[in-house]
Structure formats: C-alpha cells, structure tokens
Amino acid sequence: MKMKISSRIACLTTSVLLLGGIASARVAKPFPKEGIWRGEFSVSESKVPFNFELKGKSPQTGILTLINGSRRDDFHVERRGDDSIYVKMNTYDAALVAKIETDGTLSGEYRSLVPGFRGNSLPFVAEHGKNGDTRELEGTVQGDEFELSGFTGPSPFIVKGKINDDNSITGEQGFGIYKNLKFDGQRNENAELPDPYKLTFLKEGYKKLDFTFPDLTGKNVSLTDDKYKGKVVIIETIGTWCPNCTDQTVFLSPWFKKNQKRGVEAIAIGFEQKDDLEYAKYTLGKLKEKYGITYDILFGGIADKRVVAEKLPALNKFIAFPTTIIIDRKGNVREIYTGYTGTVTGKYFNDYETKFNKVLDELIAEPVPEKLASAETLKSK
Asked: What is the pTM of this model?
C-alpha cells in the first residue's frame, strides 16, 4: 500500500514538473520575428500598405516602429497569451490587435478604443521580410486611376481617384474607421497653397479671445485669470486623435520649457472623440505624460469644427486642427496660423519655425502694460 501511494505521489510530482515545464516553454515562446515587416489594411475595396520594424525586448514585450520615409513612430508591443500581440497606438485611443499565425505571419485588426464608437475596426495582415517605402503619403498611378496611402498611428489614410480626360481629377479620401470625403480638382501649373496666416482671423469688432474651459482637474480656466495677465499666450486647438496636433505638440512642448521664463504661457484646448470630461482626462492626460507637457491643457468638448466655432465665437470660422492663436501682453490676438507644417515638409517647416520664433521674440520684447506691471510690483512686495 505504501509503495502504491509513493508511486502515485511520484507520478503526480512528475506531472506537475512536466506541466511546469510546458508552462515555462509557453512563457519563453519567442517574440514575433524581429526586423522589417509589411502589412496591409483592408479599407472598403482597397488595400492600404504600411511598413514597420519589430524589436523584442523580451518574450513578452517589444517595440513596433512605423516607417514612413524618414519618419519613425514607436509603439509598445505587449504579448497577450501564447499567440497574440497588442499594440496601443500611444496617445491615439486605438490599438493593433494581432494573432501570430503558425507560418509566422500576423493577422488582426486596427481597433478603436473610444467607448461606444461604431464601425470601429479594420482587418490587416502582415508578413516578415517585406517592405516598400510609403513615405508620408505615397502610392501609384495605373492608367487613369491613382491611389495613395499612409499610416502613422491614427486610423490608416487613403486617397484614391480618377484622372479625367480634361486633366481634372475626382476622388475620395478614406479615413479608415472614420467617414470618407469626396473631392475634385483642376490642373493648374500656378497653383499655390493658401496662406495659413490668412485663413482664420477675428470677426470685425473683436480684438480678444474669450473662453472658459475646465482643465484636467475640473477647474475652470480663462484668459482673464491672473496667470496670463501681462504674458504672451500661445493657444492651441488640438485633439489626441489628430496626427498633425501630435506633431505640433512635439514642437511646442520643448519650445515652451525653454522659453516660459521669458514671459510666455501656453494653453492647449483639446476637442476629443467623446464629449465627456472623464474620458478627456484619460486621453489628454496620456498626451501630457507622453510628451512632457508643462503648459495648461483644457477640455473644449467634442471633436467637431462647428463646436469649436461655437465655443470660440470671435473667430471668423474654424478650418483645421490644430490652429495656433498667439496673444500679446495686452490680451490682443496678434496672429493665427491654420494647421501645422511638420518637419517632413522641409523648407516649409523651416520657414514656419523661423517666423514662429520671430513673432514670439517681438511680442515678448514688448513692455508689460503699466497697470499689470504695477500690480506685479505690488504683488512682489
């Protein structure tokens, strides 16, 4: 009897060890192949290619780097179980969720994480060892049809259309999980982009901007607060869903840290995918953490241009996220820049940066209004 019990104990011990070994082997399963990968999203009837590099820090974590020409965007990869990975798109409230297939390929979907968002996923597949430069937005022309695409973290973007006999074009812009927009255009050798400094301006009779929005603690903030009196103030209308806004934040955050002591303040007003302060605290809080933002971030409401125009009624209209509004020491609006010209635009970015610094230097050099200067003097005593 003792021998039978001992044998059973020995068998159980062996089984536990074997199961432990199997569990260890599962944990130690290698990360998806490191190196260059090429993926394809299925968007309506089109394929949107994207290139990325995978690097494994351990069997459980790694880094996925999206490749667009000279641009690189890094995202954290988390292992989910034995055969799946989860890639949060940083401050964009979305993720890539994929299964590691037996042949080493990846298959999954780009998934919106916004609560209650409908039509919220796009399928994709990816294969190791293949690539192709998509740059910021690149594609092909076949016969009289063209197609361009790109993917930097927010929903994949595609432009496709037709070249007509009269050299005009008609087409559609696809925003993946968001609605599509139709467009048309005429060939013009002398075509130029509109001046971004002249698109948005104050309505007649207005000199100042007036608003009150809650910050990420729920406290209401206005330009009339003491903190901003006598200061040059940079206002940014942004959204965490907006890649241009992210690029603008990457520019402004370190600039502000370097220049704040010169008498400058900045405010980012976030318009998010859900009209809910608690949700905005999460999304805008992630943006603040990711890019080390030290200026104030406020919540303006739902991401809708009409809503922005209603809440900033001094503006003639609201055209684009982001829009930069620069206010002088007297509280008057001195310049408005529509959109953002990122580093990939080369000369255009250099021109933007040069003018931005020139304008700010000039406004900072202006004297603090006498009343405000006196108030500051009394305060210091």
From this structure: 0.82
